[in-house]
Amino acid sequence: MTVGGRARPCRARWLMAAGVAAALALVALVNPGETRLFPPCVFHALTGLHCPGCGSLRALHRLLHGDLAGALRFNPLTVISPPVLALLAWRKDWAARPAVAWTALAVLLLYGVLRNIPAWPLSWLAPG
Amino acid sequence: MYCHKCGAQNDDNAYRCRSCGEALRRPAEAAPTPPPESAPSAPPTPPPEPVPQPAAAPPAGAPAAAIPNYLVQSILVTLLCCLPLGIPAIVFAAQVNGKAQAGDIQGAIESSRKAKMWCWWSFGVGLVGSLVYLVFAVLVPIIAAGVAKANG
User: Fold this and answer.
1) Range of A53's domain?
2) pLDDT attached to residue B56
3) A64 pLDDT band (50/70/90 cuts)?
């Protein structure tokens, strides 16, 4: 985890950055919708329901190809969360507000429920 | 004792935090010491015991905002790795600053530690699960197909 002491060994950070870059490159090069290389969502496999992360790899793949509309189709939260998380990582005092954390939890859980409701405006939240 | 900067648990006799390298102050040292010239004739006081203070007494001026809450990491592992284990990580992350604001520094440090622990469990389960899937769902069928081809 990156946030911690400032005296954290540099090597660990470089290793982590390299890992993230490699993972992003893999998701960009291989379309998660057309390969068996990436594991399916266990929650979806067991319950048939969409969890908040379902479709995030397919959305990330399209996002990395600059296809914003395609990314939104698979998981709108994946499109919204990187800038929000970057903001929280940058402004530690915002991340330190309990209300922000509880809001994040509520948004995640509510999103997980709403995207399983097969009615028009909400079905937009489901992948596909 | 806990590091007053990052909240990591350290040996009671440690001088530097093993996690962040911060110099660790003992509760006795953190208390204002009287200037030496104020009591020149006082009898020599016995040196303070090295570990008399319970761990529940961090320095009074412990920077509450410096206790990491791991919120960003918690959200990341919830979205990317393992939802069921990421949710408690977010709950503990949310508790950290609430407890710190209420003056419960020890509770905040404990919640911080638990948030970190759930983050790593979620990350580990997600990583191991992906690797196991990769071996059994991708590599094994490929090898099996290769063997079948070689035999047939």
Assistant:
1) 2-125
2) 45
3) very high
Chain A residues within an 8 Å CB radius of B9:
none
Positions of E strands within chain A:
none
Residue-wise pLDDT tens digits, A21-51: 998 898 899 888 787 788 888 888 888 888 8
Segment B75-102 shows an average pLDDT of 85
Would an 8 Å CB–CB cutoff place B88 in contact with chain A? no
Short-list B25, B45, B24, CA closest to B34: B45
Contacts of A45 in chain B (CB under 8 A): none
The alpha carbon dihedral of B130, B135, B139, B141 has a sign of: negative
Of A56, A54, A63, A55, nearest to A28 by C-alpha is A63
Global pTM?
0.66
| pLDDT value of residue A97 | 85
The ipTM value here is 0.78
Domain count, chain A: 1
Q: Which one of B70, B87, B130 has the shortest CB-CB distance to A39?
A: B130
Of residues A42, A52, A97, nearest to B97 (C-beta): A97
- B69: nearest CA in chain A? A96
Distance CA A100, CA A33 (A): 33
What token pair was written down for A22?
A: 């490699």
Q: Which of B122, B45, B36 is CA-nearest to residue B78?
A: B122
Taking 50 as the threshold, does the pLDDT of residue B57 lie above it? no
C-alpha dist (Å) from residue B45 to A23, B25, B36, B57:
61, 20, 12, 23
Identity of the residue in B20, B71, B137 whose CB atom sits nearest the CB atom of A4:
B20
Is B72's CB within 8 Å of A95's CB? Answer: yes
